[in-house]
Write a structure and sequence with these properties.
With about 80 residues, the chain is an all-beta fold. Helices cover about 0% and strands about 45% of the residues.
């Protein structure tokens, strides 16, 4: 597991002042279905996540998208501190 110490420019939610819970991530996935011979499909209820393609959401300026425990989202500069 990758662990890093991070410096967050805006660590508290601008809406409710709760601390950041983590970054918002995009994980590509395949929602599987069963395809019938007539071309109709029924979703199976299974989804395969492609974890190796996971990415942190960023804005145009490269700031990361953060989320607080209350579900509010905001963008902040975040740097990894070197040891």
């Amino acid at each position: 597991m990758y662990m890093a110490e991070l410096k967050i420019e805006i660590p508290y939610c601008p809406d409710c002042n709760s601390s950041a819970r983590g970054t918002v991530e995009t994980v590509p996935a395949c929602a599987e279905f069963e395809l019938g011979s007539d071309g109709t499909a029924d979703y199976s209820g299974n989804t395969e996540a492609f974890w190796e393609e996971q990415e942190t959401n960023r804005d145009r300026d490269g700031r990361v998208e953060l989320v607080c425990e209350n579900g509010h989202h905001w963008f902040s500069k975040m740097d990894e501190l070197s040891e």
